[in-house]
Amino acid sequence: MRFVMCRNFFLLLVICYSCTSKSKNEVAVKTYTSLSDTVSYTGIQSCRQCHSDKYETYIHTGMGMSFDLALQAKSSARFGSHEIIYDKFKNFFYEPFWQNDSLYIREFRLKGKDTVYTRIEKISYIVGSGQHTNSHMIDMNGYIYQAPATFYTQKQQWDLPPGFEAGYNSRFSRKIGLECMSCHNSFPEIVKGSENKYTAIPSGINCERCHGPGGEHVRSMQAGKTVNTLEQIDYSIVNPGKLSIDLQLDICQRCHIQGNAVLQEGKSFFDYRPGMKLSDVMHIFMPAYSGDEEAHIMASHAERMKMSPCFIESKAITERNRQNGDTLRPYKNAMTCVTCHNPHISVKETATIDFNNRCRSCHRFEGEKTKNLNPLVNTHSCTLPLIERQKVNDNCVQCHMQHSGSIDIPHVSNTDHWIRIPVTSSEKKKISEFIGLVCINDAEGGKAQLGNAWLSYFEKFASSVQYLDSAKKYIPSDTRTDIIKNFHQLVRWAFLKNDFEKVVEIVNAHPAPNDSLQKVSYSNEDAWTAYRIGESFYNYGDVQQAILYFLKAVKLAPYYPDFRYKLASAQQDAGQMEDARQNYKLLLKENPDYTSAWVNYGYLLLSTDHNIAEADRCYDKALSLDPDNIQAMFNKAGTLIYQQKFADAKRMLHELVRLQPENEKAKALLRQLK
Ligand code: HEC
Ligand code: HEC
Ligand code: HEC
Ligand code: HEC
Ligand code: HEC
Ligand code: HEC
Ligand code: HEC
Questions:
Q1: For the segment 52-89, what is each residue's pLDDT rounded down to a tens digit?
Q2: Pocket residues for ligand 2 (CB within 6 Å)?
Q3: Are 503 and 495 in contact (CB under 8 A)?
């Protein structure tokens, strides 16, 4: 017996040994203590105590100033009576203005010279350092929404934010969720079971987003347990310069690739930490077009840089020469973001010559002396005659990294990081054929996520049904095991297709659909599935089943006003008036700006309590939030008729029909009034 045990023990050791030696790099990375879940974030002020030099320059960078309270000192915008935005599609004006040190935005509508409607909201946060823009956030009882006003600094001009133009102005209802927040800020505290309700919002991207949580480092340094960082790695904190090219790039790519991000199962936008592989947490997909060279996505610096021969070649050379190189920083000769950028110093404070000297460190002119030559990568330089180059002061960047408009943000231009021989505009190919989705940060591993990628592409970017067909190819539903395994995806797929019958079919094929939805998570995945099932039953005509699933969604995500709204409406429909009443009350206490809840609650007060005065107050409240809310207008016309205010009722109904000419109910009511 004893002997056998020993042998097993020995075998175990051998197996463990061989698995560690196989992935040597990964093991080295794993020893960073900041990767351990137990290490806490300590904040930028703690780093400042010992690294004040880094702090002082960093807080003036775009990242250091990316997010803050809306104070005069933070704003880059111009204010005054002429700084008014007009949305001709929705016929609203927007005027930002200060009162003391608080920023407000006034939404209003004119009829001739008269102001016929006004709504004022306080701006709580400004996002964007102002290098390109300032966008604005409102805080409604902790729920954060984007305001419909952005200042574009390059053009010194106010306008609607990106995505709000051309009839898509969502006014005050665009939620700022974790995805958006975690690229533009340090980690906030979000209320679990919500999408955009926060209890603490920091001011700007801090050191730990690139260096990892510093709890252990601060403790070690305070205890005097330092290492000689010129010769060793301090494993209590990540120095990106000491990571491999890919792991180093992953830090920047976490935020500098803005694409279609698909989280790994069970992961959230909080989970990536410097030193990890980004693909362990998320895969980022981009649409690929044939001849898409000019499709320039705003946050695509990393992706563009990787297309450059400078990157591809220097990486290959460095990898070939790893053995002979520097062991502490084995990849320092390859091109990464840090080759040209010191992330602690803004590009605004980096002289053009500093960038050009980086080019010249690898591209050498015959006989020329440059400081900081790259010892490994040494290649020929510009083939354009000097006389031509001198016309632009031999500024390499100006010709080879051209400034151009980016397709997704208006009024903004940025630097194309695809370094290449200049393309003249006539050579620029138009976006032609859409080929498919490609994973930018892990080509192989991304394949397993293609189903989710297509679903989220359809949902967030382009709703063409063929994308759902593409998704389905990766989401089998042939057997019961498939259905259990792919339950969330299948429900989402059928739901997005508006095929409610199919959703019901999938649910019925699952042995325990309701019980399988138990998880409270940052992504609210189970809550969403429950909601989608509820909505499908509702559309299918089974209100009782719908209520069951809406209850589930609300239980898993109680701070998701949309789910509670659906629940209350279904209860109202089913005649469960007291339950509906409680839910409307809860919802409106939590989120007093929820327009359609005011409308339905008003109707409940009218139909159940016959309380016209209170119902009227609810409709007025709804119309003060949204003068174009069709249901509120219709219901309000009803109470006006009841009060025999026929002229007012007619005016309201005429306005309704102008907004929605096909509204037969309103037209019929108008005919009766004549
Ligand atoms: C009590 C002083 C102290 C505090 C607080 C402190 N550091 Fe350090 N840090 C040091 C010292 C000393 C070194 C160099 C010696 C070492 O790393 O052991 C260092 C080294 C580093 C390195 C380089 C490690 C390497 O391997 O090259 C990084 C990166 C770093 N600190 C970031 C941070 C960040 C981020 C914070 C805040 C979370 C922070 N430090 C807080 C004292 C401090
Ligand atoms: C947490 C997300 C995040 C990470 C991680 C991140 N960035 Fe950024 N970065 C941003 C955002 C957001 C902006 C735009 C900020 C603004 O101007 O409001 C930005 C701006 C910049 C700028 C231009 C602004 C300036 O003042 O210089 C540079 C250069 C930059 N980042 C480089 C890097 C590099 C290099 C890395 C990796 C070492 C990196 N970033 C990692 C989010 C991030
Ligand atoms: C994957 C990360 C990511 C996500 C998600 C993201 N952004 Fe950005 N955004 C960036 C980066 C990086 C930049 C800087 C690009 C540059 O400087 O060229 C940027 C630029 C901006 C700017 C211009 C800042 C300035 O002054 O230069 C604004 C405003 C902005 N984003 C708002 C938003 C909002 C609002 C959302 C969510 C609804 C969002 N972004 C989602 C990464 C992201
Ligand atoms: C956008 C990412 C980013 C942010 C934010 C950032 N750093 Fe760094 N930091 C880096 C990178 C990349 C390196 C490695 C630079 C290199 O190798 O050239 C680095 C290196 C360092 C080092 C190592 C020693 C040195 O002198 O290079 C220290 C210390 C440091 N950072 C402290 C800080 C502190 C303190 C803050 C916050 C005030 C901060 N960093 C914010 C990316 C960042
Ligand atoms: C070969 C040099 C080089 C490399 C490598 C490089 N950049 Fe840049 N970057 C520049 C130059 C030059 C500018 C323009 C500076 C200016 O406007 O003065 C710039 C500007 C930026 C800006 C400001 C916004 C804009 O587009 O003008 C951001 C953000 C940025 N770089 C991020 C990155 C990231 C992230 C990486 C790594 C994926 C990276 N850069 C790699 C040279 C480089
Ligand atoms: C880390 C070293 C390195 C840096 C820094 C670097 N390059 Fe390169 N670059 C290379 C290598 C290697 C090649 C491939 C050369 C070859 O194939 O002979 C290359 C290729 C090029 C090409 C040819 C592109 C093509 O499409 O054929 C141009 C143009 C170029 N670099 C310009 C620049 C400019 C401008 C800068 C500065 C903004 C720069 N490079 C910075 C290493 C570098
Ligand atoms: C006035 C614009 C301009 C400036 C400034 C300029 N280049 Fe060029 N560069 C060009 C053009 C155009 C070509 C292609 C010339 C040709 O067809 O031979 C070129 C070619 C190159 C190539 C060769 C690409 C190949 O075929 O392998 C490299 C490398 C390069 N440039 C690097 C640089 C560097 C480094 C600088 C700064 C010291 C610089 N360039 C400055 C316009 C410019």
A1: 999 999 999 999 999 999 999 899 999 988 899 999 99
A2: 61-63, 66, 128-129, 131, 183-184, 205, 209-210, 240, 251-252, 254-256, 337, 341, 343, 346-348
A3: yes
